Protein backbone atom coordinates (compact mmCIF):
# COMPACT_ATOMS: atom_id res chain seq x y z
CA UNK A 1 0.00 0.00 0.00
CA UNK A 2 1.37 3.42 -0.92
CA UNK A 3 0.49 6.84 0.51
CA UNK A 4 0.84 9.51 -2.16
CA UNK A 5 -0.20 13.10 -2.61
CA UNK A 6 -2.67 14.34 -5.19
CA UNK A 7 -2.08 17.18 -7.57
CA UNK A 8 -0.56 20.24 -5.94
CA UNK A 9 -2.92 22.12 -3.69
CA UNK A 10 -4.19 25.27 -5.39
CA UNK A 11 -6.94 27.38 -3.86
CA UNK A 12 -7.07 29.53 -6.97
CA UNK A 13 -8.73 26.92 -9.19
CA UNK A 14 -11.81 28.28 -10.95
CA UNK A 15 -14.80 26.81 -9.16
CA UNK A 16 -17.16 27.95 -11.91
CA UNK A 17 -15.63 25.72 -14.58
CA UNK A 18 -16.73 22.06 -14.41
CA UNK A 19 -13.60 20.22 -13.26
CA UNK A 20 -14.23 17.32 -15.64
CA UNK A 21 -16.07 18.53 -18.78
CA UNK A 22 -16.61 15.01 -20.17
CA UNK A 23 -18.90 14.21 -17.23
CA UNK A 24 -22.27 15.73 -18.09
CA UNK A 25 -24.56 14.28 -15.49
CA UNK A 26 -28.29 14.40 -15.01
CA UNK A 27 -30.16 14.35 -11.73
CA UNK A 28 -31.97 11.05 -12.25
CA UNK A 29 -32.90 8.67 -15.09
CA UNK A 30 -36.03 9.74 -16.94
CA UNK A 31 -38.33 7.16 -18.50
CA UNK A 32 -39.32 9.48 -21.33
CA UNK A 33 -35.72 9.88 -22.47
CA UNK A 34 -34.57 6.28 -22.76
CA UNK A 35 -33.69 6.70 -26.43
CA UNK A 36 -30.04 6.09 -27.40
CA UNK A 37 -27.77 8.97 -26.36
CA UNK A 38 -24.69 10.22 -28.12
CA UNK A 39 -23.02 11.03 -24.80
CA UNK A 40 -23.12 7.92 -22.62
CA UNK A 41 -21.63 9.85 -19.70
CA UNK A 42 -25.00 11.59 -19.29
CA UNK A 43 -26.12 8.51 -17.38
CA UNK A 44 -23.70 9.42 -14.60
CA UNK A 45 -25.76 10.42 -11.57
CA UNK A 46 -24.08 12.62 -8.98
CA UNK A 47 -27.02 12.22 -6.60
CA UNK A 48 -26.45 8.51 -6.03
CA UNK A 49 -22.83 7.85 -7.09
CA UNK A 50 -20.80 6.28 -4.27
CA UNK A 51 -18.03 4.30 -6.00
CA UNK A 52 -16.01 5.40 -9.01
CA UNK A 53 -14.57 2.79 -11.38
CA UNK A 54 -11.93 3.45 -14.05
CA UNK A 55 -10.71 1.08 -16.78
CA UNK A 56 -7.44 0.96 -18.72
CA UNK A 57 -6.36 -1.88 -21.00
CA UNK A 58 -2.69 -1.40 -21.80
CA UNK A 59 0.06 -1.89 -19.28
CA UNK A 60 1.56 1.48 -20.20
CA UNK A 61 -1.73 3.08 -19.18
CA UNK A 62 -1.32 1.98 -15.56
CA UNK A 63 -0.51 5.26 -13.78
CA UNK A 64 1.46 3.38 -11.09
CA UNK A 65 4.40 0.97 -11.12
CA UNK A 66 4.98 -2.47 -9.59
CA UNK A 67 8.30 -4.11 -8.57
CA UNK A 68 8.12 -6.50 -11.51
CA UNK A 69 7.86 -3.50 -13.83
CA UNK A 70 11.43 -2.65 -12.76
CA UNK A 71 12.62 -6.26 -12.85
CA UNK A 72 12.98 -6.58 -9.08
CA UNK A 73 12.23 -9.99 -7.63
CA UNK A 74 12.33 -9.02 -3.96
CA UNK A 75 10.22 -6.51 -2.13
CA UNK A 76 10.35 -5.25 1.46
CA UNK A 77 8.26 -6.97 4.07
CA UNK A 78 4.96 -5.18 4.70
CA UNK A 79 4.08 -3.76 8.12
CA UNK A 80 2.15 -6.19 10.38
CA UNK A 81 -1.12 -4.27 10.08
CA UNK A 82 -1.00 -4.58 6.28
CA UNK A 83 -0.02 -8.24 6.03
CA UNK A 84 -0.55 -9.60 2.56
CA UNK A 85 0.10 -6.23 0.92
CA UNK A 86 3.55 -5.61 -0.52
CA UNK A 87 5.41 -2.40 -1.06
CA UNK A 88 6.78 -1.20 -4.36
CA UNK A 89 10.36 -0.11 -3.75
CA UNK A 90 13.05 -2.82 -3.48
CA UNK A 91 15.05 -3.09 -0.24
CA UNK A 92 17.35 -0.15 0.37
CA UNK A 93 15.91 2.03 -2.39
CA UNK A 94 14.16 5.35 -1.90
CA UNK A 95 11.01 6.74 -3.44
CA UNK A 96 12.91 9.23 -5.61
CA UNK A 97 15.12 6.47 -7.10
CA UNK A 98 12.21 4.18 -7.95
CA UNK A 99 9.20 6.32 -8.92
CA UNK A 100 5.83 4.89 -8.05
CA UNK A 101 4.03 6.91 -10.75
CA UNK A 102 4.50 5.76 -14.35
CA UNK A 103 5.69 8.50 -16.68
CA UNK A 104 4.04 7.71 -20.02
CA UNK A 105 1.43 9.67 -22.01
CA UNK A 106 -1.11 6.86 -21.57
CA UNK A 107 -0.53 6.77 -17.80
CA UNK A 108 -0.86 10.55 -17.57
CA UNK A 109 -4.29 10.36 -19.21
CA UNK A 110 -5.57 7.70 -16.80
CA UNK A 111 -4.09 9.44 -13.77
CA UNK A 112 -5.78 12.68 -14.79
CA UNK A 113 -9.10 10.86 -15.22
CA UNK A 114 -8.79 9.42 -11.71
CA UNK A 115 -8.11 12.83 -10.19
CA UNK A 116 -10.71 14.71 -12.22
CA UNK A 117 -13.41 12.14 -11.49
CA UNK A 118 -12.68 12.32 -7.78
CA UNK A 119 -12.58 16.10 -8.00
CA UNK A 120 -15.98 16.20 -9.71
CA UNK A 121 -17.62 14.02 -7.06
CA UNK A 122 -16.08 15.86 -4.10
CA UNK A 123 -17.32 19.15 -5.56
CA UNK A 124 -20.89 17.97 -6.14
CA UNK A 125 -21.31 15.90 -3.00
CA UNK A 126 -20.47 16.49 0.64
CA UNK A 127 -17.82 13.89 1.42
CA UNK A 128 -15.00 13.23 3.83
CA UNK A 129 -13.49 10.48 1.64
CA UNK A 130 -13.96 8.58 -1.62
CA UNK A 131 -13.11 5.09 -2.87
CA UNK A 132 -12.12 4.24 -6.43
CA UNK A 133 -11.41 1.03 -8.35
CA UNK A 134 -8.89 1.00 -11.17
CA UNK A 135 -8.97 -2.02 -13.50
CA UNK A 136 -5.82 -2.11 -15.60
CA UNK A 137 -3.80 -4.79 -17.43
CA UNK A 138 -5.55 -7.75 -15.85
CA UNK A 139 -5.31 -6.33 -12.34
CA UNK A 140 -7.17 -4.04 -9.98
CA UNK A 141 -6.04 -1.28 -7.65
CA UNK A 142 -8.01 0.17 -4.73
CA UNK A 143 -7.75 3.91 -4.09
CA UNK A 144 -8.98 6.11 -1.26
CA UNK A 145 -9.02 9.92 -1.37
CA UNK A 146 -9.45 12.49 1.38
CA UNK A 147 -8.41 16.11 1.87
CA UNK A 148 -4.84 15.20 2.85
CA UNK A 149 -3.99 12.96 -0.10
CA UNK A 150 -4.70 9.53 -1.49
CA UNK A 151 -3.82 5.93 -0.76
CA UNK A 152 -3.42 3.33 -3.52
CA UNK A 153 -2.73 -0.39 -3.27
CA UNK A 154 -0.53 -2.59 -5.38
CA UNK A 155 -1.97 -4.08 -8.57
CA UNK A 156 -3.76 -7.32 -7.65
CA UNK A 157 -4.40 -10.09 -10.17
CA UNK A 158 -8.13 -10.65 -9.60
CA UNK A 159 -8.21 -13.60 -12.05
CA UNK A 160 -5.73 -15.65 -10.03
CA UNK A 161 -6.74 -14.26 -6.66
CA UNK A 162 -10.32 -12.92 -6.74
CA UNK A 163 -10.79 -12.86 -2.96
CA UNK A 164 -9.56 -9.27 -2.26
CA UNK A 165 -11.84 -7.79 -4.93
CA UNK A 166 -14.82 -9.90 -3.89
CA UNK A 167 -14.28 -9.04 -0.22
CA UNK A 168 -14.04 -5.33 -1.00
CA UNK A 169 -17.24 -5.28 -3.07
CA UNK A 170 -19.16 -7.32 -0.48
CA UNK A 171 -18.04 -5.08 2.38
CA UNK A 172 -18.63 -1.88 0.42
CA UNK A 173 -22.17 -2.93 -0.48
CA UNK A 174 -22.93 -3.54 3.22
CA UNK A 175 -21.48 -0.23 4.46
CA UNK A 176 -23.66 2.72 5.39
CA UNK A 177 -23.20 6.02 3.55
CA UNK A 178 -20.89 7.39 6.23
CA UNK A 179 -18.46 4.49 5.90
CA UNK A 180 -18.52 4.93 2.12
CA UNK A 181 -17.28 8.50 2.53
CA UNK A 182 -20.54 10.44 2.51
CA UNK A 183 -20.94 13.10 5.20
CA UNK A 184 -23.59 11.64 7.57
CA UNK A 185 -24.93 15.13 8.33
CA UNK A 186 -26.07 15.59 4.71
CA UNK A 187 -29.03 14.16 2.82
CA UNK A 188 -30.68 14.97 -0.48
CA UNK A 189 -33.26 17.74 -0.07
CA UNK A 190 -36.93 17.00 -0.65
CA UNK A 191 -38.78 18.66 -3.51
CA UNK A 192 -40.39 21.12 -1.11
CA UNK A 193 -37.05 22.00 0.50
CA UNK A 194 -35.41 22.39 -2.90
CA UNK A 195 -38.23 24.67 -4.04
CA UNK A 196 -37.88 26.89 -0.96
CA UNK A 197 -34.16 27.19 -1.64
CA UNK A 198 -34.42 28.03 -5.34
CA UNK A 199 -37.20 30.58 -4.76
CA UNK A 200 -35.19 32.32 -2.05
CA UNK A 201 -32.05 32.47 -4.19
CA UNK A 202 -34.00 33.83 -7.17
CA UNK A 203 -35.46 36.56 -4.96
CA UNK A 204 -32.01 37.39 -3.63
CA UNK A 205 -30.49 37.59 -7.12
CA UNK A 206 -33.36 39.77 -8.32
CA UNK A 207 -32.73 42.14 -5.41
CA UNK A 208 -29.05 42.31 -6.34
CA UNK A 209 -29.80 43.06 -9.97
CA UNK A 210 -32.68 45.52 -9.65
CA UNK A 211 -32.87 48.70 -7.60
CA UNK A 212 -35.68 51.14 -7.01
CA UNK A 213 -34.83 54.43 -8.64
CA UNK A 214 -35.34 56.22 -5.33
CA UNK A 215 -32.87 53.99 -3.51
CA UNK A 216 -29.13 53.51 -3.58
CA UNK A 217 -27.61 50.96 -5.88
CA UNK A 218 -27.78 47.46 -4.41
CA UNK A 219 -24.77 45.68 -2.98
CA UNK A 220 -22.98 43.19 -5.18
CA UNK A 221 -21.95 39.62 -4.42
CA UNK A 222 -19.71 38.33 -7.23
CA UNK A 223 -20.74 35.00 -8.76
CA UNK A 224 -23.80 34.66 -6.52
CA UNK A 225 -25.74 33.54 -9.60
CA UNK A 226 -23.71 30.31 -9.58
CA UNK A 227 -25.49 29.22 -6.41
CA UNK A 228 -28.12 27.72 -8.71
CA UNK A 229 -27.10 25.10 -11.26
CA UNK A 230 -29.24 24.48 -14.31
CA UNK A 231 -27.10 21.62 -15.65
CA UNK A 232 -28.50 19.16 -13.08
CA UNK A 233 -24.97 18.09 -12.15
CA UNK A 234 -25.17 19.66 -8.69
CA UNK A 235 -27.79 17.99 -6.48
CA UNK A 236 -29.58 20.05 -3.84
CA UNK A 237 -28.56 18.96 -0.35
CA UNK A 238 -29.84 19.44 3.18
CA UNK A 239 -27.07 19.84 5.75
CA UNK A 240 -27.31 19.75 9.52
CA UNK A 241 -24.88 22.17 11.19
CA UNK A 242 -24.31 21.99 14.95
CA UNK A 243 -22.49 24.52 17.12
CA UNK A 244 -19.68 23.05 19.21
CA UNK A 245 -20.21 25.41 22.14
CA UNK A 246 -24.00 25.22 22.59
CA UNK A 247 -25.00 21.99 20.86
CA UNK A 248 -27.73 23.86 18.99
CA UNK A 249 -28.19 22.98 15.33
CA UNK A 250 -29.95 24.11 12.20
CA UNK A 251 -30.76 22.63 8.79
CA UNK A 252 -29.51 24.33 5.63
CA UNK A 253 -30.37 23.72 1.99
CA UNK A 254 -27.56 24.32 -0.52
CA UNK A 255 -26.74 23.48 -4.10
CA UNK A 256 -23.63 24.85 -5.79
CA UNK A 257 -20.81 26.83 -4.12
CA UNK A 258 -20.45 30.32 -5.58
CA UNK A 259 -16.84 30.76 -4.42
CA UNK A 260 -13.96 28.66 -3.17
CA UNK A 261 -11.55 25.98 -4.33
CA UNK A 262 -12.01 22.83 -6.39
CA UNK A 263 -8.71 21.38 -5.21
CA UNK A 264 -8.90 17.83 -3.89
CA UNK A 265 -6.20 18.31 -1.32
CA UNK A 266 -5.96 21.05 1.27
CA UNK A 267 -8.45 23.40 2.87
CA UNK A 268 -11.00 22.97 0.06
CA UNK A 269 -12.95 26.03 1.22
CA UNK A 270 -16.39 26.36 -0.36
CA UNK A 271 -18.82 29.27 0.08
CA UNK A 272 -22.56 28.78 -0.35
CA UNK A 273 -25.77 30.72 -0.30
CA UNK A 274 -27.83 28.54 2.03
CA UNK A 275 -31.51 28.52 2.93
CA UNK A 276 -32.00 28.20 6.68
CA UNK A 277 -35.12 26.06 7.11
CA UNK A 278 -36.01 27.07 10.73
CA UNK A 279 -35.78 30.83 10.08
CA UNK A 280 -36.83 30.68 6.40
CA UNK A 281 -34.11 33.04 5.17
CA UNK A 282 -30.87 32.97 3.23
CA UNK A 283 -27.58 32.83 5.12
CA UNK A 284 -23.91 32.35 4.26
CA UNK A 285 -22.44 28.86 4.73
CA UNK A 286 -18.70 28.17 4.73
CA UNK A 287 -17.46 24.59 4.49
CA UNK A 288 -13.72 23.95 4.80
CA UNK A 289 -11.02 21.63 6.11
CA UNK A 290 -8.80 23.54 8.50
CA UNK A 291 -5.21 22.52 9.13
CA UNK A 292 -4.77 19.90 11.84
CA UNK A 293 -2.55 22.12 13.99
CA UNK A 294 -2.58 21.95 17.76
CA UNK A 295 -1.05 25.43 17.95
CA UNK A 296 -3.77 27.16 15.93
CA UNK A 297 -7.33 27.60 17.12
CA UNK A 298 -10.29 26.97 14.84
CA UNK A 299 -11.93 29.94 13.16
CA UNK A 300 -15.11 29.34 15.17
CA UNK A 301 -13.18 29.48 18.45
CA UNK A 302 -11.42 32.67 17.34
CA UNK A 303 -14.77 34.33 16.63
CA UNK A 304 -16.05 33.31 20.05
CA UNK A 305 -12.96 34.83 21.68
CA UNK A 306 -13.21 38.04 19.65
CA UNK A 307 -16.83 38.65 20.58
CA UNK A 308 -16.28 37.66 24.21
CA UNK A 309 -13.56 40.33 24.44
CA UNK A 310 -15.67 43.04 22.83
CA UNK A 311 -13.72 43.33 19.58
CA UNK A 312 -15.91 45.44 17.26
CA UNK A 313 -16.84 44.85 13.64
CA UNK A 314 -16.54 41.05 13.66
CA UNK A 315 -19.45 38.91 12.44
CA UNK A 316 -21.81 36.99 14.66
CA UNK A 317 -21.53 33.27 14.03
CA UNK A 318 -25.01 31.74 13.98
CA UNK A 319 -23.78 28.14 14.04
CA UNK A 320 -20.42 26.51 13.57
CA UNK A 321 -17.41 24.58 14.71
CA UNK A 322 -15.69 21.33 13.85
CA UNK A 323 -17.85 18.60 12.31
CA UNK A 324 -17.99 15.65 14.71
CA UNK A 325 -17.92 11.98 13.80
CA UNK A 326 -20.10 9.25 15.29
CA UNK A 327 -17.83 9.05 18.33
CA UNK A 328 -18.12 12.76 19.08
CA UNK A 329 -14.58 13.59 17.94
CA UNK A 330 -13.70 16.13 15.22
CA UNK A 331 -13.69 14.46 11.80
CA UNK A 332 -10.12 14.30 10.52
CA UNK A 333 -8.30 13.09 7.45
CA UNK A 334 -6.61 9.68 7.37
CA UNK A 335 -4.07 9.83 4.52
CA UNK A 336 -1.69 11.98 6.57
CA UNK A 337 -1.72 9.43 9.40
CA UNK A 338 -1.03 6.53 7.04
CA UNK A 339 1.87 8.45 5.52
CA UNK A 340 3.75 8.55 8.82
CA UNK A 341 3.04 5.00 10.01
CA UNK A 342 5.93 3.60 8.01
CA UNK A 343 8.21 5.50 5.64
CA UNK A 344 8.30 2.44 3.36
CA UNK A 345 4.82 3.24 2.10
CA UNK A 346 5.27 6.99 1.63
CA UNK A 347 5.81 8.14 -1.95
CA UNK A 348 6.53 11.86 -1.47
CA UNK A 349 9.12 13.93 0.34
CA UNK A 350 6.63 16.76 0.87
CA UNK A 351 4.97 17.21 4.23
CA UNK A 352 1.45 15.76 4.14
CA UNK A 353 -0.77 17.97 6.27
CA UNK A 354 -3.74 16.67 8.19
CA UNK A 355 -7.06 18.48 8.10
CA UNK A 356 -10.19 18.81 10.26
CA UNK A 357 -13.68 19.38 8.84
CA UNK A 358 -14.99 22.82 9.86
CA UNK A 359 -18.19 24.78 9.18
CA UNK A 360 -19.55 28.27 9.80
CA UNK A 361 -22.97 29.86 9.33
CA UNK A 362 -23.33 33.65 9.36
CA UNK A 363 -25.29 36.46 7.74
CA UNK A 364 -24.58 37.40 4.13
CA UNK A 365 -21.97 40.11 3.71
CA UNK A 366 -20.62 41.92 0.66
CA UNK A 367 -17.05 42.60 -0.55
CA UNK A 368 -15.41 45.93 0.13
CA UNK A 369 -15.51 47.01 -3.51
CA UNK A 370 -19.33 47.09 -3.33
CA UNK A 371 -19.21 50.35 -1.35
CA UNK A 372 -21.70 52.99 -2.49
CA UNK A 373 -19.34 55.94 -2.17
CA UNK A 374 -15.95 57.09 -0.96
CA UNK A 375 -17.27 57.68 2.54
CA UNK A 376 -18.24 54.06 3.02
CA UNK A 377 -14.78 53.04 1.85
CA UNK A 378 -13.00 55.38 4.25
CA UNK A 379 -15.26 54.51 7.17
CA UNK A 380 -14.97 50.75 6.54
CA UNK A 381 -11.17 50.79 6.49
CA UNK A 382 -11.11 53.06 9.53
CA UNK A 383 -13.29 50.54 11.38
CA UNK A 384 -11.18 47.63 10.15
CA UNK A 385 -8.10 49.26 11.68
CA UNK A 386 -10.00 49.62 14.94
CA UNK A 387 -10.94 45.92 14.89
CA UNK A 388 -7.33 44.94 14.14
CA UNK A 389 -6.13 47.10 17.02
CA UNK A 390 -8.66 45.75 19.53
CA UNK A 391 -8.00 42.12 18.55
CA UNK A 392 -4.27 42.62 19.00
CA UNK A 393 -4.70 44.31 22.36
CA UNK A 394 -7.25 41.84 23.75
CA UNK A 395 -5.99 38.53 22.33
CA UNK A 396 -2.53 39.23 20.97
CA UNK A 397 -3.54 38.03 17.49
CA UNK A 398 -3.31 39.52 14.02
CA UNK A 399 -5.61 38.82 11.06
CA UNK A 400 -2.90 38.01 8.47
CA UNK A 401 -5.16 37.86 5.40
CA UNK A 402 -6.78 41.23 4.71
CA UNK A 403 -8.41 41.32 1.25
CA UNK A 404 -11.38 42.98 -0.42
CA UNK A 405 -13.30 39.75 0.27
CA UNK A 406 -12.44 39.72 3.99
CA UNK A 407 -12.98 43.37 4.83
CA UNK A 408 -16.69 43.31 4.06
CA UNK A 409 -19.92 45.27 4.41
CA UNK A 410 -23.31 44.38 5.79
CA UNK A 411 -26.46 45.49 3.98
CA UNK A 412 -26.29 48.90 5.71
CA UNK A 413 -22.70 49.52 4.67
CA UNK A 414 -21.18 48.85 8.09
CA UNK A 415 -17.74 47.25 8.19
CA UNK A 416 -17.44 43.54 8.98
CA UNK A 417 -13.95 42.10 9.36
CA UNK A 418 -14.44 38.51 8.27
CA UNK A 419 -12.42 35.32 7.65
CA UNK A 420 -10.19 35.01 10.71
CA UNK A 421 -9.13 31.46 9.81
CA UNK A 422 -5.49 32.55 9.34
CA UNK A 423 -5.45 34.66 12.50
CA UNK A 424 -3.05 34.00 15.32
CA UNK A 425 -0.22 35.49 17.36
CA UNK A 426 2.95 36.52 15.52
CA UNK A 427 4.82 33.29 14.89
CA UNK A 428 8.44 33.33 13.63
CA UNK A 429 7.99 29.78 12.33
CA UNK A 430 4.79 30.49 10.39
CA UNK A 431 6.39 32.41 7.52
CA UNK A 432 4.43 34.70 5.22
CA UNK A 433 0.66 34.24 5.33
CA UNK A 434 -2.02 35.95 3.27
CA UNK A 435 -3.11 36.89 -0.23
CA UNK A 436 -0.34 38.06 -2.56
CA UNK A 437 -2.26 40.99 -4.03
CA UNK A 438 -2.62 42.69 -0.65
CA UNK A 439 0.49 41.48 1.18
CA UNK A 440 2.94 43.99 2.54
CA UNK A 441 6.06 44.69 0.52
CA UNK A 442 8.19 43.48 3.44
CA UNK A 443 6.66 40.01 3.27
CA UNK A 444 6.73 39.82 -0.50
CA UNK A 445 10.40 40.75 -0.72
CA UNK A 446 11.25 37.85 1.58
CA UNK A 447 9.50 35.25 -0.61
CA UNK A 448 10.04 32.55 -1.66
CA UNK A 449 13.50 31.92 -0.23
CA UNK A 450 13.11 32.79 3.45
CA UNK A 451 9.63 34.21 4.14
CA UNK A 452 9.47 36.70 6.99
CA UNK A 453 6.83 36.06 9.60
CA UNK A 454 3.68 38.17 9.69
CA UNK A 455 3.54 41.10 12.12
CA UNK A 456 0.97 43.76 13.01
CA UNK A 457 2.61 46.29 10.69
CA UNK A 458 1.98 43.97 7.73
CA UNK A 459 -1.78 44.01 8.37
CA UNK A 460 -1.67 47.80 8.55
CA UNK A 461 0.08 48.05 5.19
CA UNK A 462 -2.49 45.66 3.71
CA UNK A 463 -5.10 48.30 4.60
CA UNK A 464 -3.16 50.74 2.41
CA UNK A 465 -3.19 48.35 -0.55
CA UNK A 466 -6.89 47.68 -0.02
CA UNK A 467 -7.57 51.41 -0.12
CA UNK A 468 -5.67 51.74 -3.39
CA UNK A 469 -7.33 48.72 -4.97
CA UNK A 470 -10.92 49.79 -4.28
CA UNK A 471 -10.16 53.42 -5.09
CA UNK A 472 -8.76 52.41 -8.49
CA UNK A 473 -11.58 49.98 -9.29
CA UNK A 474 -14.45 52.21 -8.14
CA UNK A 475 -13.46 55.87 -7.96
CA UNK A 476 -10.51 56.56 -10.30
CA UNK A 477 -11.08 59.13 -13.02
CA UNK A 478 -8.39 57.65 -15.28
CA UNK A 479 -7.66 53.94 -14.85
CA UNK A 480 -4.84 53.89 -17.38
CA UNK A 481 -2.73 56.21 -15.22
CA UNK A 482 -2.92 53.92 -12.19
CA UNK A 483 -1.21 50.62 -11.54
CA UNK A 484 -4.18 48.36 -11.06
CA UNK A 485 -2.10 45.56 -12.55
CA UNK A 486 0.24 45.44 -9.58
CA UNK A 487 -2.53 43.73 -7.58
CA UNK A 488 -2.89 40.85 -10.02
CA UNK A 489 0.71 40.47 -11.19
CA UNK A 490 1.45 36.91 -10.20
CA UNK A 491 2.65 33.86 -12.08
CA UNK A 492 3.20 30.84 -9.91
CA UNK A 493 6.11 31.02 -7.50
CA UNK A 494 7.82 33.86 -9.34
CA UNK A 495 4.62 35.91 -9.26
CA UNK A 496 5.04 36.53 -5.56
CA UNK A 497 8.36 38.29 -6.08
CA UNK A 498 7.10 40.20 -9.11
CA UNK A 499 4.08 41.51 -7.24
CA UNK A 500 6.27 42.65 -4.38
CA UNK A 501 8.66 44.44 -6.72
CA UNK A 502 5.78 46.20 -8.47
CA UNK A 503 4.29 47.31 -5.17
CA UNK A 504 7.58 48.64 -3.84
CA UNK A 505 8.27 50.46 -7.10
CA UNK A 506 4.81 52.02 -7.04
CA UNK A 507 5.54 53.65 -3.69
CA UNK A 508 8.34 55.62 -5.36
CA UNK A 509 6.53 55.97 -8.69
CA UNK A 510 4.37 58.88 -9.74
CA UNK A 511 1.42 56.53 -10.31
CA UNK A 512 0.02 56.74 -6.79
CA UNK A 513 0.79 60.44 -6.51
CA UNK A 514 -0.59 61.44 -9.91
CA UNK A 515 -3.78 59.47 -9.43
CA UNK A 516 -6.98 61.46 -9.55
CA UNK A 517 -10.15 60.37 -7.85
CA UNK A 518 -13.61 61.83 -7.64
CA UNK A 519 -12.94 62.96 -4.07
CA UNK A 520 -10.12 65.34 -3.22
CA UNK A 521 -10.10 63.96 0.32
CA UNK A 522 -9.51 60.44 -1.00
CA UNK A 523 -6.75 61.64 -3.34
CA UNK A 524 -5.01 63.48 -0.52
CA UNK A 525 -5.24 60.49 1.82
CA UNK A 526 -3.72 58.08 -0.71
CA UNK A 527 -0.84 60.45 -1.38
CA UNK A 528 -0.25 60.96 2.33
CA UNK A 529 -0.29 57.24 3.11
CA UNK A 530 1.95 56.47 0.13
CA UNK A 531 4.49 58.99 1.41
CA UNK A 532 4.35 57.49 4.90
CA UNK A 533 4.97 53.97 3.63
CA UNK A 534 7.74 55.27 1.35
CA UNK A 535 9.46 56.68 4.43
CA UNK A 536 8.93 53.40 6.24
CA UNK A 537 10.46 51.35 3.41
CA UNK A 538 13.39 53.76 3.13
CA UNK A 539 14.15 53.62 6.84
CA UNK A 540 13.64 49.86 6.94
CA UNK A 541 16.37 49.47 4.33
CA UNK A 542 18.96 51.36 6.38
CA UNK A 543 21.69 49.24 7.99
CA UNK A 544 21.21 48.52 11.66
CA UNK A 545 24.78 49.70 12.33
CA UNK A 546 23.99 53.27 11.32
CA UNK A 547 25.26 55.33 14.25
CA UNK A 548 24.23 58.89 13.38
CA UNK A 549 21.91 59.84 16.21
CA UNK A 550 19.41 61.79 14.12
CA UNK A 551 19.08 58.93 11.70
CA UNK A 552 18.66 56.46 14.54
CA UNK A 553 15.85 58.60 15.92
CA UNK A 554 14.16 58.67 12.53
CA UNK A 555 14.43 54.92 12.12
CA UNK A 556 13.21 54.17 15.61
CA UNK A 557 10.30 56.63 15.49
CA UNK A 558 9.05 55.80 12.01
CA UNK A 559 9.13 52.06 12.47
CA UNK A 560 7.20 52.49 15.70
CA UNK A 561 4.66 54.77 14.04
CA UNK A 562 4.04 52.35 11.19
CA UNK A 563 3.19 49.59 13.66
CA UNK A 564 0.69 51.72 15.61
CA UNK A 565 -2.93 51.28 14.42
CA UNK A 566 -3.92 54.56 16.09
CA UNK A 567 -1.56 56.47 13.83
CA UNK A 568 -3.31 55.18 10.69
CA UNK A 569 -6.80 55.37 12.19
CA UNK A 570 -6.41 59.09 12.81
CA UNK A 571 -5.43 59.63 9.19
CA UNK A 572 -8.65 57.96 8.04
CA UNK A 573 -10.62 60.01 10.59
CA UNK A 574 -9.13 63.21 9.17
CA UNK A 575 -9.97 62.09 5.62
CA UNK A 576 -13.57 61.43 6.69
CA UNK A 577 -13.85 64.96 8.08
CA UNK A 578 -12.47 66.48 4.87
CA UNK A 579 -14.74 64.31 2.74
CA UNK A 580 -17.84 65.51 4.60
CA UNK A 581 -16.74 69.13 4.26
CA UNK A 582 -16.21 68.80 0.51
CA UNK A 583 -19.58 67.09 0.13
CA UNK A 584 -21.29 69.92 2.03
CA UNK A 585 -19.53 72.48 -0.11
CA UNK A 586 -20.61 70.68 -3.28
CA UNK A 587 -24.18 69.78 -2.33
CA UNK A 588 -25.07 71.95 0.64
CA UNK A 589 -27.93 70.56 2.69
CA UNK A 590 -28.30 67.64 0.25
CA UNK A 591 -24.89 66.24 1.18
CA UNK A 592 -25.00 62.48 1.83
CA UNK A 593 -25.30 61.55 5.47
CA UNK A 594 -22.77 59.39 7.27
CA UNK A 595 -23.81 56.25 9.09
CA UNK A 596 -26.24 56.52 11.98
CA UNK A 597 -24.91 56.98 15.50
CA UNK A 598 -26.48 53.67 16.46
CA UNK A 599 -24.30 51.94 13.89
CA UNK A 600 -21.03 53.30 15.26
CA UNK A 601 -19.17 52.62 18.45
CA UNK A 602 -18.08 55.41 20.75
CA UNK A 603 -14.51 54.90 19.59
CA UNK A 604 -15.49 55.34 15.92
CA UNK A 605 -15.33 58.98 14.76
CA UNK A 606 -18.24 59.43 12.34
CA UNK A 607 -18.11 63.10 11.38
CA UNK A 608 -21.29 64.78 10.20
CA UNK A 609 -21.39 66.96 7.08
CA UNK A 610 -20.78 70.58 8.10
CA UNK A 611 -19.01 69.70 11.31
CA UNK A 612 -15.83 71.70 11.89
CA UNK A 613 -14.54 69.65 14.77
CA UNK A 614 -13.42 66.08 15.42
CA UNK A 615 -15.94 63.55 16.65
CA UNK A 616 -13.92 63.10 19.83
CA UNK A 617 -11.74 65.46 21.89
CA UNK A 618 -10.36 62.84 24.25
CA UNK A 619 -6.72 62.20 24.97
CA UNK A 620 -6.45 59.51 22.30
CA UNK A 621 -7.43 61.96 19.57
CA UNK A 622 -4.82 64.43 20.85
CA UNK A 623 -2.21 61.70 20.76
CA UNK A 624 -3.22 60.84 17.21
CA UNK A 625 -2.76 64.43 16.04
CA UNK A 626 0.65 64.44 17.67
CA UNK A 627 1.54 61.28 15.74
CA UNK A 628 0.55 62.96 12.47
CA UNK A 629 2.74 65.98 13.25
CA UNK A 630 5.68 63.70 14.07
CA UNK A 631 5.24 61.92 10.75
CA UNK A 632 5.42 65.21 8.86
CA UNK A 633 8.57 66.15 10.78
CA UNK A 634 10.21 62.85 9.81
CA UNK A 635 9.58 63.48 6.13
CA UNK A 636 11.15 66.93 6.37
CA UNK A 637 14.23 65.45 8.05
CA UNK A 638 14.56 62.88 5.29
CA UNK A 639 14.40 65.60 2.62
CA UNK A 640 17.16 67.52 4.38
CA UNK A 641 19.35 64.41 4.40
CA UNK A 642 18.91 63.94 0.68
From TrEMBL:
InterPro entries: Kinase-like_dom_sf, Pkinase_fungal, Tyr_kinase_AS
Residue span of region Disordered: 66-99, 582-627
Single annotated GO MF: protein kinase activity
Residue ranges annotated for the Fungal-type protein kinase domain, each copy included: 112-470
Feature: compositional bias, Low complexity: 83-94
Comp. bias (Basic and acidic residues): 614-626
SUPFAM superfamilies given in the database record: Protein kinase-like (PK-like)
Domain of life: Eukaryota
PANTHER family, sorted: FUNK1 11, FUNK1 6
Name assigned to this protein: Fungal-type protein kinase domain-containing protein
Organism per entry: Phanerochaete sordida
Amino acid sequence: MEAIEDAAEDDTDDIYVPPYPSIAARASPKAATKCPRKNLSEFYNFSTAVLMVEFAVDRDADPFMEPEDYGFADTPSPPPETSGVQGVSPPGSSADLVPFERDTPEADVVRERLLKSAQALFLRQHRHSLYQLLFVHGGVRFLRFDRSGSVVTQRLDYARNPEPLAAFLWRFSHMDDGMRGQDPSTTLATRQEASLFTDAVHDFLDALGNADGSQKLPRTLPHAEHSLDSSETFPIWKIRVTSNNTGQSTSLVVQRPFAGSVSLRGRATRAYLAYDLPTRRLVFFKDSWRAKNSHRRSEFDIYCDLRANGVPFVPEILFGGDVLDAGGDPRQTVADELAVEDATWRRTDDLIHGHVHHRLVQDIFYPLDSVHNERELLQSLHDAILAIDKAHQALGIIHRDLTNSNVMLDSRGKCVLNDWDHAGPPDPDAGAIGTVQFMSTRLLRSMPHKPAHHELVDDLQSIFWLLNYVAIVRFALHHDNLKQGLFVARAGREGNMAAGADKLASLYDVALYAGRYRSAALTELIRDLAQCWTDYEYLLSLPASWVISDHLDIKRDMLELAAQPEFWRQKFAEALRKYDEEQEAAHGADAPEGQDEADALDATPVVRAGSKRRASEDARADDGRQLVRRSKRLRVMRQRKE
